[in-house]
Design a protein that fits this description.
single chain; 350 residues; alpha+beta; FAD/NAD(P)-binding domain; D-Amino Acid Oxidase, Chain A, domain 2; 2 domains; nine-stranded mixed β-sheet; six-stranded mixed β-sheet; 8 helices; 23 strands
Length: 350
Amino acid sequence: MKVLIIGGGLSGICLGHTFLNKGVDFKILDAGINHSSKIAAGMINPMVFRKMVKTWKGDELIPFLNAFYPSIEEKIGAKFFFPRKIRRVFSTQDELDKWNQRLNDKDYEDYIYAFDDSDPTPEYAINEFGSGWVKSPGYIDAKIFVRENQRYFINKGKMITESFDFGKFDSDNKTYKDEKYTHFIFSEGYKAVENPYFKYLPFVLTKGEVLSIKNDELRKDEILNRKCFVLPAQDGSFKIGSTFEWNTTDASPSEGAKEQLLEQYGLLVRSPVSVIDQEAGIRPTVADRRPLIGIHPEKESVYIFNGMGTKGYMLAPYFANELYHYLVNDTPLNTEVDIKRFYRKHYNKA
């Protein structure tokens, strides 16, 4: 088994470590773009606040990532996974009522808990309806994660920094630049919309923007969340995010997004800030909000591992492992992520 992974962002990195741990021969080809992987806040949020329910497959995803990321840190000698709990500030009385219902539900005892008098909500938080703690594993510093993992793979001779040339790809003979591989896995992020093998899939690209701010009053041991998040970074700054702009590939920061984020911040925190940076990236989100994983319906060597979306740092480790078992042990993929769910519409086959 010899694998070429096209794309060295979050998905490609998680596949690389999975294959390395399992003894699979592979190389990663990366164009050096990775917009969303690098600018993502990397927050691990196990709750969907709109409905006040656990995130999809959270009971499996969170234990897996809690083991996966520390093992990579130890392997590459870099720290990028930082524990932080999330303080959810409620938007309405109805949200508070739903939260209180969950507090009495044993299925949620590993996800949320109530405040006690020993840790009151900070005075700067606008807190009309109260707040509660989310037991988040923390967050991934995306810049460190991408930079240090790519450096690690380059040093091991496992990553090449160049764009994939479709003109030199022979899918029938399973070669790229005349070199033979058994599997080609495309993990290109939003660039998949230009991929001739997978552009039929229902990507709904979303531009996300994040601000870096300076504020000496905010607590550095927690993440604030309501309408936006306020996340403490390792350099002493804070990140405010994130926006959603649909169906665009323009990854440049915009003044409108900056104003929107500062407005949302002002509804959450009564403490002035100074903006020190603004970043934007394109997320490879999907119409049904599930990853896109599996084999091309007509090309037996061509695969995709993409569409992780806004919860990518939660999803990618677990599903990289699932793809490995699919390739090696013929273990079926989860039907909700398998691209076979789109075969019938586009290829008239199940």
